[in-house]
Design goal:
single chain, six-stranded antiparallel beta sheet, 59% helix, 14% strand
Length: 229
């Protein structure tokens, strides 16, 4: 009986040792290979935040709460301080980048804008300081695109701003709106091609919005509508 009792105790101790090893091994496995971190951007508040959590590698089951830290980068502060952009407290976060077990970062569409805004050293800060009248026209348009999650339209608009930075305010605004009208009409054509006979109403509505009040741009929209019908 005594030998059997000792045998049972040994079995229990071995089992506990194995369980402890599994728990410790699993803990280090999650800590080393299960970390997920990244950055998000809120285009309504112009605030960025980092995030970090842990998941079980392979099955991607989250095993920790998400830790978030917010930050306001210098250029975004400059945009609000100079009243180039109006903010609100709407809580909408777009992915900038994320990195998990794979070595490559996953880039969200918001990274397109963040690449221009930089990390406090953006050349667009000097551009805005040197051209405050243009900046007051330009940055609200950029942030409107970001708030619609239309980041893919931003690069062409940035190029247009540089190409027309020495123009009068009205000519600059016309160039910006023309770029937007052309891009939205192009997006509308793609949507209509993918959706068959269904009209791309949303993209077309945005094109109409930026063409409003300008005969040349309204003619572009009318030409698209005539061709689509």
């Amino acid at each position: 009986m005594a030998k059997y009792t000792i045998y049972i105790r040994v079995k229990i101790l071995v089992w506990l040792a194995w369980m402890s090893a599994l728990v410790v091994g699993g803990f280090f496995l999650v800590m080393w290979f299960g970390a997920v971190n990244g950055e998000e951007f809120n285009p309504h508040t112009l605030v960025r935040r980092s995030f970090r959590y842990y998941q079980i590698p392979g099955v991607r089951v989250q095993v920790s709460p998400i830790i978030r830290n917010t930050s306001s980068v210098g250029f975004e502060k400059h945009l609000t301080a100079q009243n180039f952009v109006k903010t609100s407290q709407k809580s909408v976060w777009h992915l900038v980048w994320a990195k998990g077990t794979r070595p490559q970062r996953v880039r969200g569409d918001a990274s397109i804008l963040i690449d221009y805004l930089g990390h406090g050293d953006s050349p667009w800060k000097k551009w805005s300081t040197d051209r405050p009248k243009l900046a007051k026209l330009f940055w609200p348009v950029i942030m409107d695109l970001a708030r619609r999650n239309h980041y893919l339209l931003i690069p062409d608009l940035m190029d247009s701003a540089l190409d027309n930075e020495d123009e009068a305010t009205s000519d600059f605004q016309h160039a910006v709106h023309r770029s937007l009208v052309e891009q939205y009409l192009h997006a509308a054509k793609i949507e209509q091609h993918e959706n068959g006979s269904q009209p791309a109403t949303e993209m077309l509505e945005f094109a109409v919005q930026y063409a409003s009040g300008n005969e040349e741009l309204e003619a572009l929209v009318s030409g698209y509508e005539d061709g689509a019908n």
